[in-house]
Design a protein that fits this description.
Keywords: Hydrolase. The chain is α/β, with parallel strands linked by helices. Helices cover about 35% and strands about 20% of the residues. The protein is built from nine helices and eight strands. The chain has an eight-stranded mixed β-sheet, sandwiched between helices. Helix 2 crosses helix 3. The chain starts with a strand and ends with a helix.
Length: about 240
């Protein structure tokens, strides 16, 4: 594990990262999902893709990369882009899981790999809608401490900066961003994913002109059991 500092808009971020196969000339960057960190990606993919320099990153606010600022996806994109410049990354392939897929798309790599990515707005359950309504009611009364009990499990241990960040990014519609991506994309999905539905994956594939869509029997973390096949498809499917 190593750290590099990145300065964006007069704010400094210490980014934790790991590199595998450092002498390889082609890069593959891995971006984790919300509430996760680089370790799950490294544990799954490091045995494969041996012709690539692997770059595993803890995005700000996750893993060993701290953050107390309120951010938006465009901020994450600028931070990671600047960080990759420090590593002289060629951005041959960027792989993003869940929220990391939105950042990966925004980075506009030569080859994009999406793993059950977020970015398509889906209908919220009645339970979620009820929690939002109750939280807004207490916020209007100035009782913000009470609203903490209604927070998503994805953020209930995070600082206020990251909670504000979560609110900024959770309801983003990335449809136009996917449509604007014009390079090569490989899209992988879990058929039993309840966090980002299979239909969302198919929609993303329809929005990206040069894309290939493959689904597996599995949930939001389907790639853990299918890393070998996914890696082989990446090797055979990139430009």
């Amino acid at each position: 594990m190593a750290l590099k500092s990145v300065s964006i808009d007069n704010k400094t971020y210490d980014i934790s990262y790991e590199i595998v196969n450092p002498s390889c000339k082609k890069d593959i960057v891995f971006l984790h999902g919300w509430g996760s960190n680089k370790d799950i990606m490294k544990n799954v993919f490091s045995p494969y893709l041996n012709d690539f320099r692997h770059i595993y990153i803890d995005m700000p606010g996750f893993g060993k990369s701290s953050n107390e600022y309120e951010l938006k996806t465009q901020d994450y994109t600028k931070i990671i882009d600047e960080f990759l410049k420090l590593l002289n990354s060629t951005k041959d392939v960027i792989t993003g899981h869940s929220y990391g897929g939105k950042v990966a798309t925004s980075l506009n790599p030569k080859n994009l790999v999406l793993l059950s990515t977020a970015g398509i707005l889906e209908e919220k359950s009645f339970e979620v809608k009820a929690k939002i309504a109750i939280a807004k009611f207490f916020n209007a009364l100035g009782l913000k401490n009470i609203t903490k009990v209604f927070r998503s499990s994805d953020v209930n241990t995070m600082n206020e900066g990251m909670y504000s960040t979560f609110k900024n990014v959770v309801n983003e519609d990335f449809s136009q961003n996917f449509k604007d991506y014009k390079n090569n994309a490989l899209i992988f999905w879990g058929e039993k994913d309840t966090a980002t539905s299979l239909e969302s994956g198919k929609k993303i594939a329809s929005l990206i002109d040069s894309s290939t869509f493959i689904s597996y029997d599995g949930d939001h973390y389907f790639f853990v059991k299918n890393a070998k096949d996914i890696s082989e498809r990446i090797e055979n499917g990139i430009l």
